[in-house]
Write a structure and sequence with these properties.
The chain has helices spanning 103-114, 119-136, 152-166, 187-197, 214-233, 253-262, 282-295, 303-309, 326-331, 355-366, 372-377, 381-386, 411-416, and strands spanning 15-23, 41-49, 52-58, 69-71, 77-79, 81-86, 138-146, 171-177, 201-205, 238-242, 269-273, 297-301, 336-338, 403-405, 423-426, 429-430. The protein is an alpha/beta fold. The strands form three sheets. The chain has an eight-stranded parallel β-sheet. The chain has a four-stranded mixed β-sheet with strand order 3-2-1-4, with no helix packed on it. α7 links the parallel β11 (269-273) and β12 (297-301). The longest helix has 20 residues, at 214-233. It is globular, with a radius of gyration of 22 Å. The N and C termini lie far apart (47 Å). Bound molecules: zinc ion. Zinc ion is lined by residues 85, 87, 144, 241, 272, 341.
Amino acid sequence: MARHQDIEIPAQGSYMLARARVPAVFLASVPQGVVPDAEGSCPLDIRVEHGRVAAILPTGTPQAEGLPVVDVEGRQVWATLLDIHTHLDKGQVIPRAMPDGTLDGGMTGTFEDRKRWTHEDLRTRIGFGLRCAYAHGVSMIRTHLDSQEANAEMSWEVFAELRAEWAGRVELQAVGLVPLTFFRTDYGAKLADLVQRSGGVLGGTTDAIGHYDGAKNEELVALLDKFLTLASERGLDVDMHVDQSEDVNAFSLPLIAEAVLRNRFRGRVLAGHCVNLALVPEPSMARTIALCREAGIAFATMPTPMVYLQDRKPGRTPRWRGVTAVHELLDAGIPVAIGGDNCRDAWFPFGDHDVLDTLQQSVRIFQLDNPFSRAVAMVGPVPSDIVREPSAGRIVVGGPARFILFAARTLNELMCRPQSDRIVINQGKRVTDPLPDYSELDATM
Ligand SMILES: [Zn+2]
């Protein structure tokens, strides 16, 4: 077998990628005559012409002369991946902000750090995050943007610049994020207008409501009606931070599902986190999951910061993994995507926008190894459908040739190493941009 580092991708972007092994989850359909292996991967030859996928054929199909052949000898070839939930605006601020490992610390640390956000500061840090993601093989990111009145215009302006600059490399979507309580005031409509003008998604976090009783419950119901009405009037999808809490009395998920049904909301609804779903009594969990399925809610789970933040108490080892009920959601047929969330900020000190690393950790945290391919879908086709971005997460004829080529033949081999030598291909060409050096952030400190 040729050494991985010796594989050459022809610079003109036209070639036959021969003897690829592609997990079937990345394909619209398995080509006739192809038999997937025990892990669900398909032996394929992929014809790339001018940076696009021209044909997906069973390995060994006789070819017309002329195209250079890149023989990958049965290595895993994936579509580039999506990160459905990030906070690019907050990221890369360590050590000027340092997390203390608590949710409150995340909130106050971010509040303080936001005072330092300028156009240039945001551009530098978001750009740094995007370069990390691109080098790792991520070609679509949905980021939440803190959208308090004081900084919303600036953050969305920087985001729009970077979205245009990065188009064709990393596709970008943004969610206007505020505590749901902001929708008590006129600012809710102003934010919804800004999001609509910017081509974004409306967001909100239920956590500001806190532990609730009858009265807070009523308030949450009213806020959800207002939030969904504002989104509906503008044709917006919504993406919420939900129940980032171990408090089973702050369980807003069933109220969200009921609100979606009551308002006959037509947009996509994505619920992020929902970690206390794993702690409520089983009958309540089953009822809630059934309700979410009826309401058409999709889920995003971000296990890496949750494992870090949840059930953290001084001098005591955590007893709970801090993550949502992923197996029960999947078994109910509900779409669940895996996201990276915070990266080197006041909430979470780690991360490099490497979705493969997030996937590898998720497989272990959630016990999603049987089969592996179901977990792989959660960073590819599943988020691709949720965010309506067909150019990432799937390999389709006519689509852009965006692949990750691994020095691994099986999913097991792939899951056991960090894959630092992966080859990323965008529009048929090898991505040679290095990971940015941390010293480039020095000016922001
Ligand atoms: Zn988040």
